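Hi Y.,

Following your request, here is the sequence exactly as I used it, all 420 residues.
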Amino acid sequence: MASIDRRSMILLLVLSGLIISICMGLRQSLGLFMRPMTLDAGVSAATFGFAIALQNIVWGLSQPFVGALADRHGPRPILVCTAILYALGLLLMVLAPNALGLNVAGFLLGIGTAGTAFGVLMGLVARATPPEKQSQTVGLVAASGSLGTMVLAPAGQWLIDGLGWQVALLAFAAIAASMALFALPIRRLAIVLNADPSRISPKPAARPKPLREALREAVGHRGYLFMTLAFFACGFQLVFIATHLPAYLQLCGVAPGVGATALGLIGLFNTIGTYGFGLLGARYSQKHLLALIYLLRTVFIAAFLLMPISAASTLIFASAMGLLWLGVSPLVTGILSRVFGLANFGTLYGVVFFSHQVGSFFGAWMGGLVFAQWGNYDFAWGALIAIGLAAFALQWLMDDRPPAERAGGRTRAASAAAAA
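Below is the corresponding structure, written out as tokens. Let me know if you'd prefer a different format.
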């Protein structure tokens, strides 16, 4: 049985990593299509950009509900349905390359990403993993999210150059549909590993709570609110950098190719950093590691701005930021599973992640507004530093005790006060 469980766990990790890698690789390669669709289909850059922004906010809005469905009915039907929606969104970009078509596509892609990215699969892997190995295992799966971009972005560019953007999008749609096929064995693997929330222990504590009750308990937990607010800063900082760093470098006289190389380095070092923080999270305080990520990002941003902006300083900055890029994922997963358990993981992770996506939306939007108003990014960089410091303080001060332990502490304090 032990060997069967080991094989099942390895296969679950491979399939989960593959699905996340495809999902994130396709999503992060969509920018390749803006220029050819602008030139060939008459789509404006603003229209294309809004569709991508819509995808991000729909991803955040739908994540708690998609996670709740996975908690209630198991991961496989959610993965299959959202993978199909993802593929339909890419297909619609070919069939209706106009404002309405792209916006509907962005909506479908947002829901598709909510199901096939981190939330559902990291909850599944966490359930299947012993607590002492949870952080590093989730970190390994989360790290795979950067690998797809390293393959799919060059492949997409090759298809666009050789066969046209329509063929490239059709190929992307077929790749997205393959996620549904990779999801088919997951139900059997989850049952073998006792990780399917729709089939696990009948004990009441192991069953998902109703959505309203789970949210009420979480919102009443000050530490959960602190972590959710801090996660806003994560999205704010990262999406501003991913969206506006190339334009900022051009303002500073740095060659355009350096921006693309910097984004590639972020992806490469992100793989190392995410797995590394997963390992550290198994040994040290996860809330303090999460706070240090916010602090170090902010320090690196300030140092980058204080030095002369050059190709060398940009690539060093990108490498450092890459090490800190998605290291938050295994740490947030570990905190949620330890504080609230795994029965409602998808729901509670979804709410935290919604805060991240709101930050992502405002990070990208704020950068554009600032540049349009003043012709530079000075105020925007200052906002990144201020918000990063606030996130560090919130995360460091987070109360990461489970609700029952907090309630017990308050009861003892009240008894002591009464006795005095």
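The mean pLDDT is 83.

Thanks again,
Q.
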